[in-house]
Amino acid sequence: MSNPLLGEKEIKIGNELFTLRPTFEGLIEIEKRAGCSIAQLSNKIMIGITGINEVTAIVFGGVFGFKDGKPDITFNTLGNKIMVHGMVNLLGSCGQFIAAAIVGKSMDEVSDELPDDGKKKKGTDQTPTDQT
């Protein structure tokens, strides 16, 4: 079970639940595997140019953080599960997870600002890259 106050996000891929936790080590893992910074990755999600490698990197890095650096799934196995599930079905959750990691907010706070598709809600002036 995820704890939104810790920035954790629970996602479902197929019939499996994965809990993502933003940790320093996990975010470094995401950057290493995605080949760009967390801020650049957030921007790629917002403008819709995210690939399967980046989505897999986000989920793997989040699981890496939740499992204290000892994920019980390989990157390639996770990538195959994401491919079968449909990468696009995870973009909103991945965007929320990255936004929470960048601004240091809990998932509850970020979820209030962003809908599941990761786009700005009407009536708000913040995107995941805005700082308050």
Question: What does this protein look like?
Answer:
- With 132 residues, the protein is mostly helical.
- It has one domain (4-113).
- Helix content is 51%, strand content 8%.
- The protein has six helices and two strands; from the N terminus they run E-E-H-H-H-H-H-H.
- It has a two-stranded antiparallel sheet.
- The chain is globular.
- The protein starts with 8 loop residues before the first strand and ends in a 19-residue tail after the last helix.
- Mean pLDDT is 83; it is low at 118-122 and 124-132.
In short:
This protein is mainly alpha-helical and 132 residues long.
Helix share, percent? 40-55%
How much of the sequence lies in strands comes to 5-15%
Strands of the largest sheet, in order across it?
Answer: 1-2
Task: Return the string of H and E elements.
Answer: EEHHHHHH
Number of strands: 2
Reported for the largest beta sheet, the result is:
2 strands, antiparallel
CA-atom Rg in angstroms: 13 Å
- What would the average pLDDT be, to the nearest integer? 83
Structural class call reads: mainly alpha
N-C termini distance: 29 Å
Number of helices: 6
Shape by Cα distribution: globular
Overall tally of structural domains: 1
Low-pLDDT parts are 118-122, 124-132
Descriptive labels:
single chain, two-stranded antiparallel ribbon, mainly alpha, 2 strands, disordered C terminus, 132 residues, globular
Fold topology:
Blueprint: E1 9-13, E2 16-20, H1 24-34, H2 38-47, H3 52-66, H4 75-85, H5 91-103, H6 107-113
Antiparallel strand pairs: 1-2
Helix pairs in contact: 1-3, 2-5, 3-4, 3-5, 5-6
